[in-house]
Specification:
Length: 407
């Protein structure tokens, strides 16, 4: 291992903070990651050096902003290995990216009696938009269940697939269980049945393989703020053939070619799906985050995160009364648990008094909680800057809460 984690931690200013008089231990990365100074600087530079609207301006600042915005698109294209930069669509986040596909794909390809397949472990943002689309198009909504370890039941999936299946949508990594779903196998099975596939990569793009061509994903969505970039920027990758064939998601400026009283024609890709003034600085900040990651060896990042995760699991499983959820042999980044006799919200609140930031609740995955027969969990989630000391602080905090509450 050659990653210098102490140096990496020093690149993130907020990690020097204290909370309730204790050093911050930030373990809420599945909700949002912290930002390195290089990202903060890129955002500041835009607003202080070349803040301007893009694409249609002829003045110097507009040209600078346009160049930076479109250079960011190419950076993201390279990172996910899209075939072309115009297959990279800027959205507000994963949620909008999925809603875009659910609407546009549904309008073009889904009719009464057709079927859409999602999974029982999907985030609500990759569940509800498809339900809504099925209601609108009078299609059937199908769900792949998961087993006791948190693995999808692919035999059930195989039986669900048929000639009426139009699209399969699933998360590459579960935000509540940490399961790494077998994306290539799912995509292959779906394609053999003639269905398109959307991959929700919100929890995977920062942790594991993210080559969209190798995956053969038709659509691939993620959020900038979960990969060390700013909030309010998301990416939808779509194969050019699909993006060309589907209708626009929103109307307005930028997405048009010619507008007349009789008819409007649409702009070329990617602008066909980018109506209105965009979040100009968002892609610039996201590109800075990717540039930061590219200074490191990705295999070393994954190895460090995996080692930290397994150390954390070992330490947590040694705590009396603790139940750990998500025990797939293929997992990353997520530690979801409960302590017998302590409500998850109370545990999260009391951990905060020790400076430990975790998340509590159903994590926008109520179908998972229903399947597990629980209301919610405490979720600690990892990033590249987390280390064993963070895990030790989490475990010490749990013991402190147990002692406080007499558990």
């Amino acid at each position: 291992m050659t990653l210098n984690i102490d140096k990496i931690r020093s690149d993130f200013p907020i990690l020097k903070s204290s909370v309730n008089g204790k050093p911050l231990v930030y373990l809420d990365n599945a909700a949002t990651t912290q930002k390195p100074q290089t990202v903060i600087d890129a955002i500041t530079q835009y607003y202080t050096k070349y803040n301007s609207n893009i694409h249609r301006g002829t003045h110097h600042l507009s040209n600078l902003a346009t160049e930076a915005h479109e250079a960011a698109r190419k950076t993201i294209q390279t990172y996910i290995n899209a075939q072309s930069s115009h297959e990279v669509i800027f959205t507000r986040g994963t949620t909008e990216a999925i809603n875009l596909v659910a609407y546009a794909f549904g309008e073009a390809y889904v009719n009464a009696g057709d079927e859409v397949i999602v999974t029982e472990m999907d985030h609500h943002s990759n569940f509800v938009p498809w339900q809504m689309m099925c209601e609108r198009r009078r299609a059937h909504f199908r769900v792949i269940p998961f087993d006791a370890n948190g693995d999808l039941k692919l035999d059930v999936f195989a039986n669900l697939l048929n000639d009426r299946t139009r699209i399969v949508a699933f998360n590459h990594v579960s935000n509540s269980l940490g399961t790494i779903n077998p994306a290539r196998e799912i995509i292959r099975m779906a394609h053999e049945a003639g269905a398109a596939v959307l991959v929700d990569a919100a929890q995977s793009v920062q942790h594991i393989d993210h080559d969209v061509q190798a995956l053969d994903a038709d659509f691939y969505a993620f959020s900038g703020h979960k990969i060390y970039g700013p909030t309010g920027i998301g990416i939808l990758y779509g194969k050019e053939s699909w993006l060309e064939a589907m209708p626009p998601y929103q109307g307005g400026g930028e997405m048009i070619d010619l507008v007349s009283i009789d008819k409007t024609t649409y702009n070329k890709l990617p602008f066909k799906y980018e109506a209105g003034t965009p979040n100009i600085v968002g892609p610039i900040g996201l590109a800075a985050a990717i540039d930061y990651l590219n200074t490191m060896d990705y295999d070393e990042i994954m190895a460090h995160e995996d080692e930290t995760l397994e150390y954390a699991r070992e330490q947590l499983l040694g705590i009396d009364g603790l139940t750990l959820y998500g025990n797939s042999n293929h997992r990353t980044s997520i530690l979801a648990f409960n302590i017998e006799g302590i409500h998850h919200y109370d545990l999260g609140t009391l951990l905060d008094t020790q400076g430990v930031a975790v998340r509590t609740g159903h994590h926008c995955t109520q179908p998972i909680m229903t399947a597990l027969g629980i209301e919610g969990t405490v979720r600690a989630s990892l990033a590249l800057y987390n280390n064993r000391s963070d895990i030790d602080a989490l475990v010490a905090g749990i013991h402190h809460v147990k002692k406080m509450l007499g558990k």
